[in-house]
Amino acid sequence: MKTPSRAVVLLSGGLDSATCLAWALHRYDQCEALSFAYGQRHTSELDAAKRLAEAAGVPHRIISIDMQSLGGSALTDHSIAVPEEQSQGIPVTYVPARNTIFLSYALAVAEVTNSQAIVIGVNAVDYSGYPDCRPEYIEAFAQLARLATKAGVEGQPLSIDTPLLWLSKAEIIQLGNSLNVDYSLTVSCYQANAEGEACGKCDSCRLRAQGFADAALPDPTRYRHAS
Amino acid sequence: MKTPSRAVVLLSGGLDSATCLAWALHRYDQCEALSFAYGQRHTSELDAAKRLAEAAGVPHRIISIDMQSLGGSALTDHSIAVPEEQSQGIPVTYVPARNTIFLSYALAVAEVTNSQAIVIGVNAVDYSGYPDCRPEYIEAFAQLARLATKAGVEGQPLSIDTPLLWLSKAEIIQLGNSLNVDYSLTVSCYQANAEGEACGKCDSCRLRAQGFADAALPDPTRYRHAS
Protein backbone atom coordinates (compact mmCIF):
# COMPACT_ATOMS: atom_id res chain seq x y z
CA MET A 1 0.00 0.00 0.00
CA LYS A 2 1.26 3.41 -0.94
CA THR A 3 2.13 5.70 1.97
CA PRO A 4 -0.28 8.64 1.93
CA SER A 5 1.31 11.95 1.00
CA ARG A 6 1.13 14.53 3.76
CA ALA A 7 1.38 18.31 3.91
CA VAL A 8 1.39 20.97 6.61
CA VAL A 9 -0.56 24.05 5.46
CA LEU A 10 0.04 27.43 7.09
CA LEU A 11 -3.45 28.81 7.62
CA SER A 12 -3.82 32.39 8.82
CA GLY A 13 -7.52 32.63 8.12
CA GLY A 14 -6.98 35.07 5.28
CA LEU A 15 -7.89 34.80 1.62
CA ASP A 16 -4.46 33.58 0.46
CA SER A 17 -4.00 30.77 2.99
CA ALA A 18 -7.59 29.60 2.49
CA THR A 19 -6.78 29.22 -1.21
CA CYS A 20 -3.58 27.32 -0.31
CA LEU A 21 -5.52 24.89 1.87
CA ALA A 22 -7.95 24.14 -0.99
CA TRP A 23 -4.99 23.70 -3.36
CA ALA A 24 -3.21 21.36 -0.93
CA LEU A 25 -6.33 19.23 -0.42
CA HIS A 26 -6.30 18.51 -4.14
CA ARG A 27 -2.60 17.66 -4.19
CA TYR A 28 -1.93 15.72 -0.97
CA ASP A 29 -3.72 12.76 0.61
CA GLN A 30 -3.60 14.23 4.12
CA CYS A 31 -3.29 17.85 5.20
CA GLU A 32 -2.86 19.41 8.60
CA ALA A 33 -3.58 23.12 9.10
CA LEU A 34 -1.20 25.10 11.27
CA SER A 35 -2.01 28.51 12.75
CA PHE A 36 -0.25 30.79 15.18
CA ALA A 37 -1.60 32.87 18.03
CA TYR A 38 1.02 35.60 18.21
CA GLY A 39 -0.72 38.47 19.94
CA GLN A 40 -2.13 39.78 16.69
CA ARG A 41 -4.72 42.54 16.89
CA HIS A 42 -6.96 40.68 14.53
CA THR A 43 -7.74 37.50 16.52
CA SER A 44 -10.83 37.23 14.32
CA GLU A 45 -8.36 35.85 11.75
CA LEU A 46 -7.74 32.87 14.04
CA ASP A 47 -11.47 32.28 14.34
CA ALA A 48 -11.61 32.34 10.54
CA ALA A 49 -8.78 29.75 10.42
CA LYS A 50 -10.74 27.49 12.76
CA ARG A 51 -13.86 27.76 10.58
CA LEU A 52 -11.85 27.07 7.41
CA ALA A 53 -10.11 23.99 8.87
CA GLU A 54 -13.41 22.67 10.16
CA ALA A 55 -15.11 23.26 6.81
CA ALA A 56 -12.25 21.39 5.10
CA GLY A 57 -12.33 18.56 7.67
CA VAL A 58 -8.59 18.73 8.44
CA PRO A 59 -6.81 18.64 11.82
CA HIS A 60 -5.89 22.13 13.02
CA ARG A 61 -2.94 22.86 15.27
CA ILE A 62 -2.63 26.32 16.86
CA ILE A 63 0.77 27.17 18.34
CA SER A 64 0.93 30.09 20.75
CA ILE A 65 4.02 32.22 20.32
CA ASP A 66 4.93 35.25 22.35
CA MET A 67 5.80 37.57 19.46
CA GLN A 68 4.31 40.51 21.36
CA SER A 69 7.31 40.61 23.73
CA LEU A 70 9.51 41.18 20.66
CA GLY A 71 7.60 44.35 19.72
CA GLY A 72 8.47 46.33 16.62
CA SER A 73 5.31 45.99 14.53
CA ALA A 74 1.96 47.71 14.31
CA LEU A 75 0.38 44.25 14.07
CA THR A 76 1.53 43.20 17.55
CA ASP A 77 2.59 46.44 19.29
CA HIS A 78 -0.68 48.22 19.97
CA SER A 79 1.10 51.55 20.52
CA ILE A 80 1.93 51.74 16.78
CA ALA A 81 -1.01 52.84 14.61
CA VAL A 82 -1.95 50.81 11.54
CA PRO A 83 -1.53 53.15 8.55
CA GLU A 84 -4.58 53.78 6.37
CA GLU A 85 -2.63 55.31 3.50
CA GLN A 86 -0.58 53.44 0.90
CA SER A 87 2.85 52.94 2.47
CA GLN A 88 6.30 53.07 0.84
CA GLY A 89 9.12 50.53 1.39
CA ILE A 90 8.87 48.04 4.26
CA PRO A 91 5.62 48.83 6.11
CA VAL A 92 5.25 49.29 9.88
CA THR A 93 2.93 46.27 9.85
CA TYR A 94 6.05 44.13 9.26
CA VAL A 95 6.52 41.60 12.10
CA PRO A 96 10.22 40.83 12.76
CA ALA A 97 11.19 37.42 11.39
CA ARG A 98 7.56 36.34 11.35
CA ASN A 99 7.63 34.00 8.38
CA THR A 100 10.95 32.55 9.55
CA ILE A 101 9.47 31.70 12.95
CA PHE A 102 6.27 30.35 11.37
CA LEU A 103 8.18 28.20 8.86
CA SER A 104 10.47 26.92 11.61
CA TYR A 105 7.51 25.64 13.59
CA ALA A 106 6.01 24.22 10.39
CA LEU A 107 9.31 22.43 9.82
CA ALA A 108 9.10 20.88 13.29
CA VAL A 109 5.48 19.82 12.68
CA ALA A 110 6.40 18.41 9.26
CA GLU A 111 9.21 16.44 10.84
CA VAL A 112 7.15 14.88 13.63
CA THR A 113 4.22 14.11 11.29
CA ASN A 114 6.45 12.75 8.49
CA SER A 115 5.07 15.27 6.02
CA GLN A 116 6.63 15.82 2.61
CA ALA A 117 5.62 19.45 2.19
CA ILE A 118 4.89 22.76 3.82
CA VAL A 119 2.38 24.91 1.91
CA ILE A 120 2.59 28.66 2.43
CA GLY A 121 0.66 31.43 0.69
CA VAL A 122 3.46 33.93 0.09
CA ASN A 123 3.13 36.09 -2.94
CA ALA A 124 5.66 38.06 -4.94
CA VAL A 125 3.23 39.94 -7.18
CA ASP A 126 0.86 41.94 -4.97
CA TYR A 127 3.97 42.46 -2.85
CA SER A 128 3.57 44.57 0.30
CA GLY A 129 7.30 45.03 0.92
CA TYR A 130 7.86 42.19 3.40
CA PRO A 131 11.36 40.81 2.78
CA ASP A 132 10.30 37.30 3.86
CA CYS A 133 7.70 36.97 1.10
CA ARG A 134 10.20 36.92 -1.77
CA PRO A 135 10.96 33.81 -3.84
CA GLU A 136 14.68 33.96 -2.97
CA TYR A 137 13.74 33.90 0.71
CA ILE A 138 11.58 30.79 0.19
CA GLU A 139 14.40 29.10 -1.74
CA ALA A 140 16.77 29.85 1.15
CA PHE A 141 14.33 28.31 3.61
CA ALA A 142 13.94 25.20 1.45
CA GLN A 143 17.72 24.86 1.41
CA LEU A 144 17.81 25.27 5.19
CA ALA A 145 15.10 22.61 5.58
CA ARG A 146 17.13 20.16 3.49
CA LEU A 147 20.04 20.57 5.91
CA ALA A 148 18.12 20.92 9.16
CA THR A 149 16.13 17.75 9.40
CA LYS A 150 16.57 14.06 9.96
CA ALA A 151 14.47 13.36 6.83
CA GLY A 152 16.57 15.81 4.81
CA VAL A 153 19.79 14.18 6.00
CA GLU A 154 18.35 10.80 5.07
CA GLY A 155 17.62 12.00 1.53
CA GLN A 156 13.95 12.96 1.79
CA PRO A 157 13.95 16.74 1.40
CA LEU A 158 10.89 18.69 2.37
CA SER A 159 9.14 20.68 -0.33
CA ILE A 160 8.15 24.28 0.44
CA ASP A 161 5.13 24.76 -1.81
CA THR A 162 4.16 28.32 -2.75
CA PRO A 163 1.20 27.88 -5.12
CA LEU A 164 0.35 31.60 -5.05
CA LEU A 165 3.88 32.95 -5.57
CA TRP A 166 3.41 34.36 -9.06
CA LEU A 167 -0.37 34.91 -9.06
CA SER A 168 -2.02 38.32 -8.90
CA LYS A 169 -4.68 38.76 -6.23
CA ALA A 170 -7.33 38.39 -8.94
CA GLU A 171 -5.75 35.12 -10.12
CA ILE A 172 -5.61 33.82 -6.54
CA ILE A 173 -9.32 34.55 -6.16
CA GLN A 174 -10.06 32.86 -9.50
CA LEU A 175 -8.03 29.80 -8.42
CA GLY A 176 -9.87 29.63 -5.10
CA ASN A 177 -13.19 30.09 -6.82
CA SER A 178 -12.44 27.11 -9.09
CA LEU A 179 -11.63 25.09 -5.93
CA ASN A 180 -14.89 26.19 -4.26
CA VAL A 181 -13.26 28.25 -1.50
CA ASP A 182 -15.89 30.07 0.54
CA TYR A 183 -14.19 33.46 0.89
CA SER A 184 -16.93 34.74 3.19
CA LEU A 185 -15.23 32.56 5.86
CA THR A 186 -11.91 34.42 5.48
CA VAL A 187 -10.64 37.60 7.14
CA SER A 188 -7.82 39.66 5.62
CA CYS A 189 -8.18 43.03 7.37
CA TYR A 190 -5.31 44.14 9.65
CA GLN A 191 -7.85 45.63 12.05
CA ALA A 192 -10.97 43.51 11.70
CA ASN A 193 -13.37 43.71 14.63
CA ALA A 194 -14.40 40.77 16.83
CA GLU A 195 -17.10 39.79 14.32
CA GLY A 196 -14.47 39.59 11.57
CA GLU A 197 -15.79 42.70 9.81
CA ALA A 198 -13.16 44.52 7.74
CA CYS A 199 -12.14 48.19 7.91
CA GLY A 200 -11.96 48.52 4.12
CA LYS A 201 -9.06 50.99 4.44
CA CYS A 202 -5.82 49.19 5.34
CA ASP A 203 -3.32 47.89 2.74
CA SER A 204 -4.67 44.36 3.08
CA CYS A 205 -8.30 45.43 2.58
CA ARG A 206 -7.36 47.52 -0.44
CA LEU A 207 -5.49 44.65 -2.13
CA ARG A 208 -8.35 42.26 -1.44
CA ALA A 209 -11.13 44.52 -2.72
CA GLN A 210 -9.15 45.29 -5.87
CA GLY A 211 -8.60 41.54 -6.36
CA PHE A 212 -12.33 40.76 -6.42
CA ALA A 213 -12.91 43.71 -8.75
CA ASP A 214 -10.14 42.57 -11.14
CA ALA A 215 -11.37 38.96 -11.00
CA ALA A 216 -14.85 40.19 -11.90
CA LEU A 217 -16.28 38.14 -9.04
CA PRO A 218 -18.62 39.32 -6.26
CA ASP A 219 -16.76 40.38 -3.09
CA PRO A 220 -18.22 38.50 -0.11
CA THR A 221 -16.14 40.51 2.41
CA ARG A 222 -18.14 41.81 5.35
CA TYR A 223 -17.19 45.49 5.87
CA ARG A 224 -18.04 47.39 9.01
CA HIS A 225 -18.56 50.64 7.11
CA ALA A 226 -20.53 50.89 3.87
CA SER A 227 -17.82 51.51 1.26
CA MET B 1 30.34 58.71 18.15
CA LYS B 2 30.63 55.16 16.88
CA THR B 3 27.45 53.09 17.21
CA PRO B 4 28.13 50.30 19.72
CA SER B 5 28.29 46.84 18.22
CA ARG B 6 25.59 44.50 19.48
CA ALA B 7 25.16 40.74 19.60
CA VAL B 8 22.45 38.30 20.66
CA VAL B 9 23.99 35.25 22.38
CA LEU B 10 22.07 31.99 22.61
CA LEU B 11 22.61 30.86 26.19
CA SER B 12 21.40 27.42 27.21
CA GLY B 13 23.25 27.36 30.51
CA GLY B 14 25.61 24.65 29.31
CA LEU B 15 29.38 24.71 28.95
CA ASP B 16 29.44 25.62 25.26
CA SER B 17 27.06 28.58 25.40
CA ALA B 18 28.77 29.94 28.54
CA THR B 19 32.01 29.97 26.55
CA CYS B 20 30.23 31.73 23.67
CA LEU B 21 28.95 34.44 26.00
CA ALA B 22 32.46 35.11 27.34
CA TRP B 23 33.78 35.17 23.74
CA ALA B 24 31.03 37.59 22.63
CA LEU B 25 31.68 39.93 25.57
CA HIS B 26 35.22 40.35 24.28
CA ARG B 27 34.12 40.97 20.72
CA TYR B 28 30.98 43.13 20.94
CA ASP B 29 30.23 46.30 22.89
CA GLN B 30 26.82 45.12 24.04
CA CYS B 31 25.48 41.58 24.39
CA GLU B 32 22.04 40.26 25.20
CA ALA B 33 21.58 36.67 26.34
CA LEU B 34 18.65 34.71 24.93
CA SER B 35 17.32 31.48 26.44
CA PHE B 36 14.33 29.30 25.74
CA ALA B 37 11.95 27.54 28.07
CA TYR B 38 10.78 24.69 25.87
CA GLY B 39 9.55 22.05 28.28
CA GLN B 40 13.00 20.58 28.68
CA ARG B 41 13.50 17.99 31.44
CA HIS B 42 16.55 19.79 32.67
CA THR B 43 15.10 23.16 33.76
CA SER B 44 18.20 23.45 35.97
CA GLU B 45 19.92 24.48 32.72
CA LEU B 46 17.72 27.59 32.60
CA ASP B 47 18.67 28.41 36.19
CA ALA B 48 22.30 28.08 35.12
CA ALA B 49 21.65 30.46 32.19
CA LYS B 50 20.19 33.03 34.61
CA ARG B 51 23.26 32.76 36.88
CA LEU B 52 25.63 33.10 33.92
CA ALA B 53 23.85 36.17 32.49
CA GLU B 54 23.78 37.77 35.92
CA ALA B 55 27.47 37.02 36.50
CA ALA B 56 28.25 38.58 33.10
CA GLY B 57 26.02 41.59 33.77
CA VAL B 58 24.06 41.27 30.50
CA PRO B 59 20.30 41.51 29.88
CA HIS B 60 18.67 38.09 29.68
CA ARG B 61 15.55 37.35 27.68
CA ILE B 62 13.76 34.02 28.16
CA ILE B 63 11.21 33.09 25.50
CA SER B 64 8.73 30.37 26.34
CA ILE B 65 8.02 28.02 23.47
CA ASP B 66 5.64 25.11 23.49
CA MET B 67 7.96 22.54 21.93
CA GLN B 68 6.49 19.83 24.16
CA SER B 69 3.28 19.74 22.08
CA LEU B 70 5.43 18.82 19.07
CA GLY B 71 6.74 15.68 20.82
CA GLY B 72 9.26 13.40 19.19
CA SER B 73 12.28 13.77 21.49
CA ALA B 74 13.50 12.21 24.72
CA LEU B 75 14.42 15.71 25.89
CA THR B 76 10.83 16.96 25.81
CA ASP B 77 8.67 13.82 25.61
CA HIS B 78 8.96 12.29 29.05
CA SER B 79 7.70 8.91 27.82
CA ILE B 80 10.95 8.38 25.86
CA ALA B 81 13.89 7.30 28.04
CA VAL B 82 17.20 9.14 27.80
CA PRO B 83 19.76 6.56 26.65
CA GLU B 84 22.76 5.95 28.89
CA GLU B 85 24.75 4.08 26.23
CA GLN B 86 26.63 5.61 23.31
CA SER B 87 24.05 6.05 20.52
CA GLN B 88 24.48 5.60 16.76
CA GLY B 89 23.19 8.01 14.10
CA ILE B 90 20.73 10.75 15.04
CA PRO B 91 19.98 10.29 18.75
CA VAL B 92 16.52 10.12 20.34
CA THR B 93 17.46 13.27 22.27
CA TYR B 94 17.12 15.18 18.97
CA VAL B 95 14.42 17.89 19.22
CA PRO B 96 12.65 18.51 15.87
CA ALA B 97 13.84 21.73 14.24
CA ARG B 98 15.12 23.00 17.58
CA ASN B 99 18.01 25.11 16.37
CA THR B 100 15.93 26.44 13.49
CA ILE B 101 13.25 27.64 15.90
CA PHE B 102 15.85 29.06 18.30
CA LEU B 103 17.72 30.87 15.54
CA SER B 104 14.46 32.24 14.14
CA TYR B 105 13.61 33.84 17.47
CA ALA B 106 17.19 35.09 17.77
CA LEU B 107 16.77 36.63 14.32
CA ALA B 108 13.66 38.46 15.50
CA VAL B 109 15.47 39.68 18.64
CA ALA B 110 18.48 40.75 16.57
CA GLU B 111 16.19 42.68 14.26
CA VAL B 112 14.30 44.57 16.96
CA THR B 113 17.51 45.33 18.93
CA ASN B 114 19.51 46.35 15.81
CA SER B 115 22.15 43.72 16.54
CA GLN B 116 24.83 42.80 14.01
CA ALA B 117 25.34 39.22 15.14
CA ILE B 118 23.85 36.09 16.61
CA VAL B 119 26.33 33.95 18.55
CA ILE B 120 25.57 30.24 18.82
CA GLY B 121 27.69 27.46 20.31
CA VAL B 122 27.20 24.78 17.69
CA ASN B 123 30.04 22.38 17.21
CA ALA B 124 31.00 20.11 14.34
CA VAL B 125 33.80 18.21 16.07
CA ASP B 126 32.39 16.52 19.18
CA TYR B 127 29.35 16.00 16.95
CA SER B 128 26.39 14.21 18.51
CA GLY B 129 24.57 13.55 15.22
CA TYR B 130 22.19 16.54 15.24
CA PRO B 131 21.70 17.67 11.62
CA ASP B 132 21.24 21.29 12.68
CA CYS B 133 24.72 21.56 14.24
CA ARG B 134 26.62 21.25 10.95
CA PRO B 135 28.50 24.12 9.32
CA GLU B 136 26.49 23.83 6.09
CA TYR B 137 23.31 24.24 8.15
CA ILE B 138 24.66 27.41 9.78
CA GLU B 139 25.66 28.77 6.36
CA ALA B 140 22.14 28.12 5.11
CA PHE B 141 20.69 29.98 8.07
CA ALA B 142 23.03 32.93 7.50
CA GLN B 143 21.86 33.05 3.89
CA LEU B 144 18.24 32.94 5.03
CA ALA B 145 18.91 35.78 7.51
CA ARG B 146 20.36 37.92 4.72
CA LEU B 147 17.12 37.54 2.77
CA ALA B 148 14.64 37.57 5.66
CA THR B 149 15.25 40.86 7.38
CA LYS B 150 14.79 44.55 6.84
CA ALA B 151 18.46 45.12 7.77
CA GLY B 152 19.55 42.39 5.34
CA VAL B 153 17.47 43.91 2.55
CA GLU B 154 19.02 47.29 3.34
CA GLY B 155 22.52 45.85 2.99
CA GLN B 156 23.42 45.14 6.62
CA PRO B 157 23.56 41.36 6.80
CA LEU B 158 23.51 39.67 10.16
CA SER B 159 26.51 37.57 11.09
CA ILE B 160 25.90 34.11 12.58
CA ASP B 161 28.98 33.62 14.75
CA THR B 162 29.96 30.08 15.65
CA PRO B 163 33.19 30.50 17.66
CA LEU B 164 33.19 26.85 18.78
CA LEU B 165 32.46 25.27 15.40
CA TRP B 166 35.84 23.64 14.87
CA LEU B 167 37.01 23.29 18.47
CA SER B 168 37.22 20.01 20.36
CA LYS B 169 35.53 19.93 23.75
CA ALA B 170 38.96 20.25 25.35
CA GLU B 171 39.76 23.31 23.23
CA ILE B 172 36.40 24.89 24.13
CA ILE B 173 37.21 24.42 27.80
CA GLN B 174 40.69 25.87 27.32
CA LEU B 175 39.19 28.87 25.48
CA GLY B 176 36.66 29.42 28.27
CA ASN B 177 39.35 29.02 30.89
CA SER B 178 41.40 31.75 29.21
CA LEU B 179 38.28 33.98 29.31
CA ASN B 180 37.68 33.21 33.01
CA VAL B 181 34.43 31.28 32.51
CA ASP B 182 33.26 29.79 35.79
CA TYR B 183 32.20 26.35 34.58
CA SER B 184 30.83 25.43 38.00
CA LEU B 185 27.88 27.69 37.06
CA THR B 186 27.07 25.62 33.96
CA VAL B 187 24.91 22.53 33.56
CA SER B 188 25.33 20.19 30.56
CA CYS B 189 23.60 17.01 31.75
CA TYR B 190 20.47 15.89 29.85
CA GLN B 191 18.92 14.75 33.15
CA ALA B 192 20.39 17.03 35.81
CA ASN B 193 18.38 17.19 39.03
CA ALA B 194 16.80 20.36 40.46
CA GLU B 195 20.10 21.30 42.10
CA GLY B 196 21.87 21.13 38.73
CA GLU B 197 23.78 17.96 39.68
CA ALA B 198 24.78 15.85 36.68
CA CYS B 199 24.08 12.14 36.07
CA GLY B 200 27.57 11.50 34.74
CA LYS B 201 26.20 8.90 32.31
CA CYS B 202 24.41 10.58 29.38
CA ASP B 203 26.13 11.52 26.09
CA SER B 204 26.44 15.12 27.20
CA CYS B 205 28.04 14.24 30.54
CA ARG B 206 30.45 11.86 28.87
CA LEU B 207 31.61 14.47 26.32
CA ARG B 208 32.01 17.08 29.04
CA ALA B 209 34.01 14.90 31.46
CA GLN B 210 36.29 13.75 28.64
CA GLY B 211 36.79 17.41 27.67
CA PHE B 212 38.09 18.39 31.09
CA ALA B 213 40.33 15.31 31.14
CA ASP B 214 41.75 16.08 27.66
CA ALA B 215 42.22 19.76 28.57
CA ALA B 216 44.11 18.65 31.68
CA LEU B 217 41.97 21.02 33.76
CA PRO B 218 40.07 20.22 36.97
CA ASP B 219 36.41 19.31 36.32
CA PRO B 220 34.15 21.52 38.48
CA THR B 221 30.99 19.58 37.47
CA ARG B 222 28.80 18.63 40.41
CA TYR B 223 27.80 14.96 39.98
CA ARG B 224 25.00 13.40 41.94
CA HIS B 225 26.79 10.03 42.12
CA ALA B 226 30.43 9.69 43.05
CA SER B 227 32.09 8.80 39.75
Structure, described:
The structure is a homodimer of 227-residue chains. Chain A is α/β, with parallel strands linked by helices and 227 residues long. Chain A has one domain (6-215): Rossmann fold. In chain A, 36% of the residues lie in helices and 11% in strands. Chain A contains seven helices and five strands; from the N terminus they run βαβαβαβααβαα. A five-stranded parallel β-sheet of chain A has the order 3-2-1-4-5, with helices on both faces. The mean pLDDT of chain A is 85. At the A-B interface, β3, α3, α4 and α5 of A face β3, α3, α4 and α5 of B.
What attributes does this structure have?
227 residues, five-stranded parallel sheet, alpha/beta, Rossmann fold, homodimer, 5 strands
Fold blueprint:
The structure is a homodimer of 227-residue chains.
Chain A (H helix, E strand, L loop, with lengths): L5 E5 L4 H13 L2 E8 L6 H13 L3 E5 L33 H15 L4 E3 L15 H14 L1 H4 L5 E3 L7 H10 L24 H13 L12
How many helices of chain A in DSSP terms?
Answer: 7
What is the name of the CATH class of chain A? Alpha Beta
Low-confidence stretches of chain A: none
Biggest protein-protein contact in the assembly: A-B, 42 and 42 residues
Write down the domain tally of chain A: 1
Can you describe this structure in just a few lines?
2 copies of one chain form a homodimer. By secondary structure, the first copy, chain A, is an alpha/beta fold.
